[in-house]
């Protein structure tokens, strides 16, 4: 059982650590600019860091849900790679937004594409599960070319 979800669990924990990092950056910015909770306005750099963290937190439940459904019903390895790429793009989004609002756009679009990809994988896996008699063989056949490339 564990070997069937170990990659998903690892990406999930990395995602939680990333969320904690973003929250710590808000705390540091509050201290740096002397902005006490519950205030959410002040120095422009604080506001950008605060918004970046809030935006990442808003999308995190969507990401985790799609990661697990795609990983369980389509292929764990493919979902985990998409998940790692998503976490990387969100990190770049956070970094870019902290510097300038325009810096968030490229990583934002990349992370949105990855969420759409995870949604597609999740839907394909669920459809195969419900409508194909041997859906496990179907998803394994789709993932076979990736295995041959040595992806996992």
UniProtKB/TrEMBL annotation:
GO terms under cellular component: endoplasmic reticulum membrane; nuclear outer membrane
Membrane topology: Multi-pass membrane protein
Keywords in alphabetical order: Endoplasmic reticulum, Leukotriene biosynthesis, Lyase, Membrane, Nucleus, Phosphoprotein, Transferase, Transmembrane, Transmembrane helix
Keyword Cell division: no
Subcellular localization(s) per the UniProt record: Endoplasmic reticulum membrane; Nucleus outer membrane
Keyword Transmembrane helix: yes
Leading EC class: lyase
Catalytic reactions of this protein: (13S,14S)-epoxy-(4Z,7Z,9E,11E,16Z,19Z)-docosahexaenoate + glutathione = (13R)-S-glutathionyl-(14S)-hydroxy-(4Z,7Z,9E,11E,16Z,19Z)-docosahexaenoate; leukotriene C4 = leukotriene A4 + glutathione
An annotated Gene Ontology molecular function: leukotriene-C4 synthase activity
Pathway in which the depicted protein is active: Lipid metabolism; leukotriene C4 biosynthesis
Gene3D superfamilies per UniProt: Membrane associated eicosanoid/glutathione metabolism-like domain (1.20.120.550)
Protein EC: 4.4.1.20
Record-level GO BP terms: leukotriene biosynthetic process
Membrane spanning residue stretches: 62-88, 114-132
Quaternary organization: Homotrimer. Interacts with ALOX5AP and ALOX5.
Function: Catalyzes the conjugation of leukotriene A4 with reduced glutathione (GSH) to form leukotriene C4 with high specificity. Can also catalyze the transfer of a glutathionyl group from glutathione (GSH) to 13(S),14(S)-epoxy-docosahexaenoic acid to form maresin conjugate in tissue regeneration 1 (MCTR1), a bioactive lipid mediator that possess potent anti-inflammatory and proresolving actions.
Family from the record: Belongs to the MAPEG family.
Protein name (Swiss-Prot/TrEMBL): Leukotriene C4 synthase
Natural source organism: Patagioenas fasciata monilis
